Amino acid sequence: MTTTLKSQALAALLVQAALFSTAAANPIPFDKSQAVAGPRTDAGTGLCGSATHFLATQPLNNKAEAVAILDKPTTDPAVLERTTRLFGNLNLRNGQTNTAGDFTQPAAPDALLPYSKDAAAMPMGTDSNIAFRLRGYFNVPATLAGRTLSFAVNCDDFCALQIGKTMVITADERISARVIKQVSFGDAGLYPVELVYYQNGSTAFLEWARSDTAVQECPNDICLTSLTDPAMYQNSFKLVAASELYSSVAGTSAACQECGAAGTSCAAGSYCGDGLCQTCNTADHCGSSCQVCPATARQCSAAGTCVECTTSAQCSGGGSCDVASGRCQTTPGSDPKYEGGNGCTVGGATTAPGSGWPMLGCLAALGLAVLLRRRARTAA
Ligand SMILES: [Ca+2]
Ligand SMILES: [Ca+2]
Fold this sequence. Notes:
seven-stranded antiparallel β-sheet, disordered C terminus
């Protein structure tokens, strides 16, 4: 890029920053209309990342240029190499010095960006020309719903964080590597996230953190103080943890295959959800045919069929789930349709089904009847 182009870009970004500085902090609102499911209770394992080591004809200048690289097929001459996998540690750096960012060892050890010039990088590269896209879900438990949270990114050269359909943060190291934005989730749930990053040359790092309090957004959108500065932020910023990030709506998608761009598709039995190929294991995408489960059977079983329940917690009124049939059963004796079904018959009289002592009594009666019949046969 020529010096003129660079200064023009800088001027445009400065104007943008100045415009934003006049607006008072107003948390970006989210509600369940942007979530894909209710909150998860199992621990997450991180986001899916796709990193491309690209052939640079000139440095990338904005998100759209990075996305264009990331969407290219691996056969494209601009794509030198691509790797996809789970990323649990969103505290990344390249192999150069002065790339620790705000969060680093010993409290928060950094991970190496793919294509860093370091033998430990997976895979190793040149430290330069890296486009990186992380996709997946951020879990909002009931304890975080309704509060004002503060998201912060710190990156070199560029990163952009989107949640649901809303662009939350764009940080450009030429203006400010570090940006803080307040958000508020009205509802608990699983929210799609996408983090796009690129590195042209020299130093490179990417960090995504959160404070569960309303931290003042940076004056002029230029944050000069480290997010880990105890006097400024009272240690309220923590890196977003792997345990609150997911690679799929249900289960995990460790293969991290992206989809949605031209020429991409997902294998049979999987579907493209929020840019990732995911197993058809949800109520809206169930089984080998990836069917939408009907209102009367909104659970997708492990076998890939739509059922009423897979656990008793999904049965209302204290009923229990018969996992084999996937049907909720009411408490025995209270539902006419089960009456007599599990009872035992002694001398033509049906005994009501039950558990515990009544059942033992029933078995004892059966045993006595058999004994009496044998005696009668012996006598005859
Ligand atoms: Ca760091
Ligand atoms: Ca850089």
